[in-house]
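User: I'm writing a tutorial on reading structure tokens. Could you give me a worked example: one chain, its sequence, then its tokens, then a sentence or two explaining what the tokens reveal?
Assistant: Sure. Here is the example chain.
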Amino acid sequence: MEGSVNLGGELCVITHRLRGSSPAESTFAPKTVILLRRAFLQGTLMTLGSARLTWLLRRLSRMYWQEVPYRAGTVVRGLMQSRGFFAADVVPKEAQDARWGRSWCERPAGPRNAEQIHAEAARLLAGELKVFGQPVEMNGGLPDWNSDPVSGVRIPSSFGLFIDFRHIGGGVDIKFLWEVNRHLWWVSLAQEYALTGSRPCLDRLGQLLRSWLEACPYAQGANWSSPVEHGIRLINWSLVWQLIGGADSPLFEGESGKRLLAQWLGSIYQHMRFASDNYSLHSSADNHLIGEAAGVYVAAHTWDRWTETRRLRDHAKAILERETLLQFSADGVNGEQAICYHKFSLQFLIASGLCARANRDDFSSAFWSRIEAAVTFLASMMDAAGHVPAIGDSDDGEVWRLGAVPGFNSYASMVAIGAALFSRSDLQAKAESCGAGADPQVGWLAGLVSPPPDSAAMQKLPSRFVDGGYAILGERLHSPDELRVTFDCGPLGSNRIAGHGHADALSLTVGWHGVPMLVDPGTYCYNAAPQFRHFFRGTHAHNTLVVDDCDQSEYGASFLWLRDVHCNVAPEPAAPLQSIHASHDGYERLTDPVVHHRRVTLDAADGGLLIEDWLDCEQTHEVELLWHAAAGAALVPAEGPSWLLEAQGRRLSLAIDGSDVRAEVIEGRESPPQGWVSSRFYERSPAPVLTVKARLAPRQVLRTMIRRETP
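And here are its predicted structure tokens:
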């Protein structure tokens, strides 16, 4: 209790500090301040432990003062909802002109992935399900919707908004439970029914739906704790609904079928209300807000049954129009600075756009232009084999999936869908060049026809993204034998918290012939292994320079950085050199402020890649230069201060030029973590990293020369 009282006082001080004034100078009315303090205090008493208090105080420090009253309001609203006020327990009567929406997905005439869908449906009917590689225990084909699939820990069915899903304890990461409850896997059963009329698949969907509705009542439990999950679930429910035949499906025949339909429609209404009642705003306005609005929009068209949800649909559409332009730069880069979440947001927006066109409620040309730019960026960032650099957070999450094929590449699929949406032959060539051939999802999406590929046009895809903060250098880009260098010269992330951003300013990756050589190590985990979460997000896990053993920003929590990092890109030189010079201010917080500079130059004459690092500062500093190799690669010493890197038959030499450098190769060190790569969520593999330590005086240059070698 004492800690909570102190929190109330501290929150008041933080509120005024964020406003840039003292409490005595506040323009808030005294009653408003008291209400703010009481609201936070009551919410704290009900929901917070000591770890949560620390997180909350740090989180508050990254808010602009205008956000604090909103946050107080969310606490008050949550308290009121938990007591039945403003809730959606009672589903309203349907409108007199209630209708069923038009389908935005359809059964293709000859789906490329029919055999894979048959196999996936058979596995699901046999009770086999995995999420993030983890088998999910099934009882009669049904999972426990409220238990962590990894540990078996059951999450209490208390009021969902008061569940502290970031700090459940016991090594539980809520992502596993949420992944089961997103219901992407239901779509495969619905696809099989659409293709074959399989009654077992339809019956299993009915069992799953009844079970979920019974186990997850409105506003109770972990599946009602994060509104973006409702957006994802609504989109997958929309796909299932359309593929099984909508209201005319045999699933809804008879009295029991009618009851099931009524129960489902009630939950759909409550999902729309819950998502729209709890939109993620201000510093939380990222992919979550897009996802929440997308779910409401798609659902309100699919099930156009209530007057109230038509207003929600219009509001959701306005949010999607606004946030698409705010969250994606003019050159198509998502502001979260995470490639996985770039794709994730695109999936929400494409589902919304297709639904809009099917229901004659199209979005603006500005919306579609930004989507086209975002798809183009994704195509540009993909290498010749379809890899994208693991920049920023990646949890392997998908919003929806219609492509059940071995080795399915959802990034290439987004490019293929973009090619069909915008009749872009260059994008089609890029999608096909990744070895996947025709995309398995396009045929399932209403109104889409793939254009013919144009390889010559593909070679002209952009390589500079000034607004978004990326540059691609290379030779024969988008060809099988390309040399590709991707340089990150953008901000830390979005909305001051940079929730999915990594401290990776001025880092680069190198690939050759579609083989990743120098890589971004990825993400690995979110909540269950704090030491590794910090490592993979931190500067030590990226191909850049660490100064005085510090991250470029101050680490606040698993999804929170406490300081912004800004990059500045200098004007580029003329040919024949491909060169870029950038700097960042992340280390200006040090006692002796430091600006890190990096120049990356690819010489067209000899093919050498030169990386030069130096510091603008007043004193000498300890630095560590890191070069992370791919998992399975070999990194061995050669003559002089140089090393040979070999991966999948390709070889690079790395030569270091600097005074008094101390270098070693580390692989698979547990504490402190170093020498790891994560190619999939919750999987990590030992991988060699060359660490080069030195003392750099002001403007002293540390050089790395990288050359391709003949095996």
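What the tokens reveal: The first strand starts at residue 99 and ends at 100. The chain has three domains: 2-82, 99-458, 469-709.
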